[in-house]
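Below is a filled-in request sheet from our internal design queue. Each sheet records the structural input a requester submitted and the sequence that came back. We keep these sheets so that new team members can see what a complete request looks like end to end.

REQUESTER: design group, bay 2
PRIORITY: normal
MODE: inverse folding
CHAIN LENGTH: 493
BACKBONE (tokenized):
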């Protein structure tokens, strides 16, 4: 464990500097395709990802800026995955943005600031840094949601996202201020130490904790703080929906671990009970409400709520009977679930954009009718993604669900075993609406007869994405080991 300043911030410094370069360079780009801006952005994110991967391989934990930031394997791994998700998102989004006259420089600049906010959150060691990263990411996403200024639905979605996001940020900030008032510190390790003394009024701590958990649940998209998810997913441009549903999930997971595990583990008995309620509510509401949806993006939004229920379940099993023996297993299973979910959902929304064309968004489930007759390989890729989200072996989604259920059952506590059974039952409910999409693609009569507009780059990326979801399942041991190693190292410091 070392203390330093600028070296721990090299990835963030690079990201901020290049965001400014991209913003200025785009002023001189005149082509409609904006190839220079696109490739400069991809280069920026690629170097950012490489820096985090190098630091992750080093395996060291370091503090900087007088303890405001901490860089450890968990933060580097989450930031690396977020950067990878952003690169894939930009590649999927490019043809769609160009066809709708949305290929603007601000899309790329704001996306870079979203990633910068995510990285700041992943390395936060101080309440104010958490909030700084959160607002940097959130404000950029609000603006991106309203990117289509002439589109009433997108503007409405942006307003809802902004108002509810501001409310949730207020909850989180109020909860953190209560924690500061009780412990006398804004530094996460100091808060942990003060709570561990046992001399602080527990009622004050729990009161603040409720608001912190509410703010985090909003960012995760867990019920009953899910209200923004369906409207924003459906209303935002699909490229922005993919950005919202991908990389920011890593940031939400990161600040949950930083605040609740590294800062408030002494209150685990209290926040784990809240998480259990959130998880069951998310599984129930997400899976049941998704059945009634005919809009594909809205169905996937409710699916996201249900998927986050699994993540929250994993996070709720870290401290059992007062000991932390199962913490590494529980939190790493939740992290693995987030990774598998994000890279599956990238493919689903990427495929929606691949099937869309000028004047046709391919957002209804019925729009996929008979897709197997028009393009068997596209229908096959979507089938892989749907099976993965449903938890059908040998897709990576099955092993993600299995890891969370194993973490619950291995506690040998009746409550967690019952929760594992509940999770399995709601997964069976969820399988219905995923398999309905598969049935529509392979067995229904085609409604659309227009040829699919080919984009060779996107087609290759979709094939690679589908292959990764299929192959990484049986060979997910390495990825799971990386997640476990990152979590164990974070808990050790």
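RETURNED SEQUENCE:
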């Amino acid at each position: 464990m070392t203390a330093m300043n600028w070296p721990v911030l090299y990835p963030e410094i690079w990201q901020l500097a290049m965001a400014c370069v991209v913003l200025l360079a785009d002023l001189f780009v005149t082509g409609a395709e904006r190839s220079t801006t696109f490739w400069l952005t991809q280069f920026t994110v690629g170097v950012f990802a490489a820096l985090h991967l190098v630091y992750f391989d080093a395996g060291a934990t370091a503090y900087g800026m007088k303890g405001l930031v901490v860089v450890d394997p968990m933060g580097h791994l989450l930031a690396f995955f977020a950067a990878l998700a952003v690169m894939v998102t930009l590649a999927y989004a490019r043809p769609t943005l160009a066809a709708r006259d949305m290929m603007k420089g601000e899309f790329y600049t704001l996306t870079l600031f979203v990633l910068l906010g995510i990285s700041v959150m992943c390395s936060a060691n101080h309440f104010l840094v958490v909030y700084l990263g959160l607002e940097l990411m959130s404000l950029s996403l609000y603006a991106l949601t309203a990117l289509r200024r002439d589109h009433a639905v997108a503007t409405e979605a942006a307003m809802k996202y902004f108002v509810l996001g501001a409310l949730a940020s207020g909850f989180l900030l109020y909860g953190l201020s209560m924690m500061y008032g009780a412990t006398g510190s804004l530094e996460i390790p100091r808060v942990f130490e003060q709570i561990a003394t046992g001399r602080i009024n527990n009622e004050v701590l729990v009161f603040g904790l409720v608001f912190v958990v509410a703010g985090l649940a909003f960012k995760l998209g867990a019920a009953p703080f899910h209200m923004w998810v369906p409207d924003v997913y459906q209303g935002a441009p699909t490229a922005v929906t993919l950005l919202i549903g991908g990389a920011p999930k890593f940031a939400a997971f990161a600040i949950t671990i930083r605040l609740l595990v590294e800062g408030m583990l002494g209150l685990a008995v209290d926040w784990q009970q809240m998480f259990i309620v959130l998880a069951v509510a998310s599984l129930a509401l997400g899976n049941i409400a998704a059945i009634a949806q005919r809009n594909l993006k809205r169905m996937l939004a409710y699916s996201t709520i249900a998927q986050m229920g699994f993540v929250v379940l994993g996070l709720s099993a870290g401290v059992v009977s007062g000991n932390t023996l199962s913490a590494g297993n529980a939190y790493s299973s939740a992290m693995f679930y987030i990774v598998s979910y994000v890279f599956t959902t990238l493919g689903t929304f990427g495929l929606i954009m691949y099937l869309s064309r000028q004047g046709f968004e391919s957002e209804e489930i019925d729009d996929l009718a008979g897709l197997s007759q028009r393009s068997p390989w596209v229908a096959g890729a979507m089938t892989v993604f749907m099976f993965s989200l449903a938890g059908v072996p040998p897709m990576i989604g099955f092993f993600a669900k299995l890891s969370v259920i194993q973490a619950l059952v291995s506690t040998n506590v009746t409550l967690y075993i019952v929760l594992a059974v509940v999770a399995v039952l709601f997964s069976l409910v969820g399988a219905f609406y995923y398999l309905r999409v598969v049935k529509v693609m392979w067995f229904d009569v085609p409604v659309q007869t227009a040829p699919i507009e080919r984009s060779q780059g996107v087609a290759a990326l979709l094939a690679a994405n589908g292959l990764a979801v299929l192959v990484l399942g049986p060979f997910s041991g390495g990825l799971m080991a990386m997640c476990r190693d990152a979590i164990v190292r974070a808990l050790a410091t």
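SHEET NOTES:
- The chain has one domain: 2-492.
- The CA atoms of residues 347 and 462 lie 6 Å apart.
FILED BY: M.R.
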